Amino acid sequence: MNLRPGRWPASYPLALVIALLAFVPVGVLVGLASDSAQLFDAHNLKVLTNTLLLMLFTVLGSVAIGVPLALITAYVQLPWRKFWLILLAAPLAIPSYIGAFTLYAAFGRGGEIQQWLGLPMPTVNGLAGATLVMTLYSYPFVMLTTRASLLSLDASLVNAARTLGMTIGASLWRVVLPRVVTGIAAGALLVALYSLSDFGTPAIMRLDTFTRVIFVEYNAFGLSQAAMLSLQLLVIVGLVLFLESRVRGSKEKPGRHLTLWPSRGHKLMMALSIAPVTLLAIVLPLLVFGTWLLREGTGGFDATYAWNSAHASFLAALVAVVLAIPVAHAAIAGRAGRFMERLTYFGFGVPGIVMGTALVYVGLQLPLLYQTLALLVLAYVLRFLPLAVGSVRSTAEGLDPSLVKAARLLGASPREAFQRITLPLTLRGMVAGAALVFLEAMRELPATLMLGPTGFETLATYLWRVYEAGYFGRAAIPGLLLVLMSALGLALMLSGERRAEFDVTGK
């Protein structure tokens, strides 16, 4: 490809500017951290240890739960199979800080469980509590990526192993699981990224990880030290992102689908193993919020919080889609465009607390932006732009190129062909991308806490304020609204997965 500027596709210049914008937070943090006197000390070592232990234990727990559930949902013939898949993926519809909040309130002396049953319960906090919460709300990453790999396998090798006398358990362990290692690894790396970037769970569980300590330094006006800690966290995130980029999916040709028919005893065992996960991750938070709603009513909740969340998220979704169009079409146009697209994905790997630290400094240098809605929207766009880019690109790649060629032969200019053919046909992907950005922005907590205008409360920040103040009962309405909005995002994500994968089973 000739990369002289005059020969570049029209989408390249704007895509390059957008891609470089994704690296602005890193440049800001490097400059800001240069003023910090503390590069690494004993406290940093403790924070690093806690962060890595939380990541490691969460990954191990998610694999231990997610892989068996992937096998069950992929191969075992159960009544209402679609329902079980949705139920087991449902923890993705609950932000982990909501799960941490409700588990913290339910357990311990005087907690909700003791008030319900009269039984004293142990306190859930620290490393054990944070690991429990993060595992409950991140295992679906492993389950879904592993399940996708399982559904692509040919059952003939398992059948051959069975004819040679191998038990079904040994066949799954020695024949199936080694062939889906990449799917397990892909899900485990997503869990690692999620645990590294999460702020609410470690903060509520009072565990000093990088995200919590960065926020403490920011509140103590230690912006330079917060930037130094942010860069240290980014090094770990960058390593995980590099490992994720090296993971490749299975190249195996799909064949006959493996089907397992369980006995009544096996069904009972599976139900008993699934029950604790669903009770802790889904039923308990909804029960706690329902109890608070009945006890406290809607007192203290202002509908403005929901409007603020929707308003800021809508603006972010609109801007993200507008910026995603040139990036997505540049990625289709050639290798340089694909590289630009990969650069924009960097922002998605930057934790919200790190993005907030960088943009706070930008706001301090540009007073017109400081504590404005525009700066908050910029943070959302930089973080969630890849969601819009991926959606627009996948739709655009499915277009028939002959339509554009026909328009060009009939005398349309490249711009006219884009406006009258390409753009309308990619509208579905644009709407889907905007919906994903909107829903993720609604859930974002740390960046909103740091960058929101004075007096600007969203559902997420209001939930955080009532936690800090100890008015737990007032969290019912914002918590339930956030769960509802997140459930819409989960339905959007699973709709294509269900169409693609349940067709394989013939169900």
UniProtKB/TrEMBL annotation:
TM ranges: 12-32, 52-76, 83-107, 127-150, 171-196, 226-247, 268-294, 314-333, 345-362, 368-385, 471-494
Descriptive protein name: ABC transporter permease subunit
Organism whose genome encodes this protein: Microbulbifer hydrolyticus
InterPro entries given in the database record: MetI-like, MetI-like_sf
Pfam family for this entry, one: BPD_transp_1
Keywords assigned: Cell inner membrane, Cell membrane, Membrane, Transmembrane, Transmembrane helix, Transport
Stated family: Belongs to the binding-protein-dependent transport system permease family.
Primary residence: membrane
Keyword Transmembrane attributed: yes
Single GO BP term: transmembrane transport
PROSITE patterns xref list: ABC_TM1
Domain of life: Bacteria
Start and end residues of each ABC transmembrane type-1 domain: 48-244, 306-493
GO cellular component, one term: plasma membrane
Cell compartment(s), UniProt: Cell inner membrane; Cell membrane
Membrane topology summary: Multi-pass membrane protein
